[in-house]
Design a protein that fits this description.
The chain is α/β, with parallel strands linked by helices. It has 13 helices and 12 strands. An 8-stranded parallel beta barrel has the order 1-2-3-4-5-6-9-10, surrounded by 6 helices. A two-stranded antiparallel ribbon has the order 7-8. It binds glyoxylic acid (GLV) and magnesium ion. The site of glyoxylic acid has 10 residues, from helix 7.
Length: about 350
């Protein structure tokens, strides 16, 4: 067992000191690109300031014979781009049992370790996977002289990973967050879906029969296949002070269901989702920024609650310490997002942010 006192000690001589808190930077959309694609690489300057996180994907969706091109492309993008204050650079490396991951990590940390904010690790099975990456990153950071620790984000996409999610979330001070990976998770669990995230028309509840007529008309309602896993992931993340995310929504054309899935995740506690196509960026931005009405209501409750104790009636509803705490979550998020976004600051009537020339609406 590792002593609690050692938890925040670097895992290699010369590696940067682990952080005690996950840095609070907006990450409403983690926008995936294939860095080996010249077409996508050319679009990077437009994405800086427009997305909270730009992620160079090296894993699934990149063909085996394009893995090196993707890795080299990411190094080139990281070197050539000034990401400014508002956009973070992440990568998703290949799985720990793949032939590519060691070169992914050694190359990226050695060449652009000072520019990478977070490494997303797929198919994490348990805390032992995080421990492996933790030590390796520390060794590589020490060798490359990286000044601040690169954080780690796990994808929850195996049944064993779900069973171990609390231990994964607390495995290292490097842990930044966890994303649901519904496609791999469905396969690993032997679910009978054939989609990348979202619902399924067969997963439903049906009204009781009227007058015993089982064949008569009865309303049905599609249910959320991902509710249990997202809720469990949110609890594990909250318990360890790290951030939960919904992952991919593969039906790019179905912008309505994408928004619903993202909103369910937001309401349950997630802070962002993956965007696989530019059309999903605006959806994530809309969903993971609280509405102006919620912010205004939260402010009213805060004002009405005075010193924060007791209870008051507002519009016929009882507000107390607990509803105030929910309102403070909304207000804190609105304040934080407003620091990066003048339009949101105006919408929420928050003090305007310091301008960043790269920031786009
Ligand atoms: C994401 O990687 C997924 O498998 O859903
Ligand atoms: Mg996956």
């Amino acid at each position: 067992m590792r002593s609690a006192k050692d938890f925040f000690a670097p895992l290699a001589v010369g590696a940067p000191t682990p952080l005690r808190e996950v840095p609070v930077r907006p990450s409403r959309m983690i926008h995936f690109i294939d860095p080996g694609s010249e077409r996508m690489a050319a679009k990077v300057p437009e994405l800086v300031g427009a997305v909270d996180v730009l992620l160079g994907n090296l894993e699934d969706a990149v063909r085996g014979d394009r893995k090196e091109a993707a890795r080299d492309g990411l190094v080139a993008i990281a070197r050539a781009t000034d990401f400014g204050r508002h956009t973070q650079l992440w990568t998703r490396v290949n799985a720990l049992d793949s032939p590519w991951v060691l070169d992914d990590l050694t190359t990226l940390v050695a060449q652009v370790g000072d520019r990478l904010d977070v490494v997303m690790v797929p198919k994490v099975q348990g805390p032992e996977d995080i421990h492996y990456v933790d030590r390796l990153l520390a060794q590589l950071e020490a060798r490359a002289g990286v000044p601040r620790p690169i954080l780690v984000h796990a994808i929850l996409e195996t049944a064993r990973g779900v069973a171990n999610v609390e231990a994964i979330a607390g495995a290292s001070p490097r842990m930044q967050g966890i994303s649901l990976g519904p496609a791999d998770l469905a396969a690993d669990r032997r679910m009978k879906t054939t989609r990348v995230g979202g619902g399924h028309p067969g997963y439903l509840v049906r009204e009781d029969p009227v007058g015993g007529d089982v064949m008569g008309p009865r309303a049905t309602s599609q249910q959320d296949l991902w509710h249990y896993t997202i809720a469990r992931m949110v609890d594990a993340c909250a318990m360890h002070g790290i951030l939960p995310y919904y992952g991919p929504f593969g039906d790019i054309a179905d912008v309505v269901a994408c928004e619903d899935q993202f909103r369910n995740a937001f309401l349950l506690g997630c802070v962002g989702a993956w965007t696989l196509h530019p059309s999903q960026i605006a959806i994530a931005k809309r969903v993971f920024s609280p509405s102006a009405e919620d912010v205004a209501h939260a402010r009213r409750v805060k004002e009405a609650m005075g010193d924060g104790t007791g209870a008051v009636m507002l519009d016929g509803r009882m507000e107390d310490d607990a509803s105030l705490k929910q309102c403070l979550v909304i207000l804190e998020l609105a304040e934080r997002l407003s620091q990066n976004d003048a339009e949101l600051a105006e919408l929420y009537a928050v003090r305007p942010p310091t301008p960043d020339p790269r920031a786009r609406a």
